[in-house]
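Question: Send over one sample?
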Amino acid sequence: MIAHVERWLPVGQTRQSGRGIHRLPLPELDVWLLLLTLALCGLGLIMVYSASQALAYTDYGNTAYFFDRQLLWLAVGLVAMGVCAKIDYHRWVQLAPILAIVTLVLLAAVLVPHIGVEVQGARRWIRLGPMDIQPSVLAQFMVVVAGAVWLDRLGPRITDLRDGVLNYSWKIAVVALLVVMEKDLGSTVVLSVTALGLLWLAGVRIRHLAGVGAVSFLGGLLLVRAEPYRTARLLSYLNPFAHKLGSGFQAVQALYSLAAGGVFGTGLNGAVSPAQLLPEAHTDFIFAIIGEELGLVGTLLVLLLFLGFAWRGIRAARNAPDRLGVLLAGGATIWIVGQALINIGGVTDTIPSTGVPLTFISFGGSSLALSLAATGILLNISARQRRVGIGNARANHRGRNGRPLHPGHRGGGGAQAD
């Protein structure tokens, strides 16, 4: 798709001068992106209630317990999305160091007894009143924002192994190590995929990208071998029905749920799995409940909504006014859509289950709020492209000497070839 980030930049859509980037008018919303996001969140509210009401009544005496908390976090996320849509995305250059420091502090704090909440041997949450904050999700958001800023600053040096790739990679490795210490391999996988995607967008050499990817893959295998339950999960992925009463129980029940729904599903509240058979039905395995209650039609709808989101995200990156906009928009799209595909792959046993939520749909406060914040950044980048491009693209298509301002703007391919 691209050989350099610069080749994503449409002719005449930058607004720069010797004094820097011009301030633009208040942004116009990308209505399609907004509607797709709201549709996913609305579907999530419905499915969280349907998948969790039996568990909520059994544990809390209130069928709407999880629904109420999802609604609260949705409100927080919509406010965050609105704020991020209003903020000029260039401001993240100044905010990225603060975000990185806060993230590292929270990732360290969650490991401290009596601060981090321990569940089944893992410390992943910090409790603040009625809300649980998951620092590993903030780390993923930080990688999108700070990673884009770091790569933008590296510029052409990204083609150099030591000054470019390793300079970026060691920062990501520190964050990933802290997440691993929380025993959260799923978040580590999502974080790593996002970081590698940003490297590709930045125009890293293919051999360097392959090297970093190989090291990440080998590190993941070592982490799997380090914990018996991870090894068991990998073995159950290879043949879940051979372990259907043990490590493969969730995978098998998820497949049964998907099969039970048929084409049109059993209807809302019609699934047996949430009440009896499928653990974590309202979180990591909610896609299976969508398949059971809404059928193949429902699962295809989810895939189409994420495909639409990817289309608008790629469009925002493709038409971004500058390199930073390309990296931010591309990183946000890779994170949001990539996590959704990883979740769906795990539920359908296409890839090993990693325990990550289905973006916008699964029950989960931090993930929902920060995904919406990232969507707000996408909206801001897309709107600024619209403001700059609609009125000025034709007039600025060629320079004063009649030559294109960006001769290589039609290039293709991601990472640079050697």
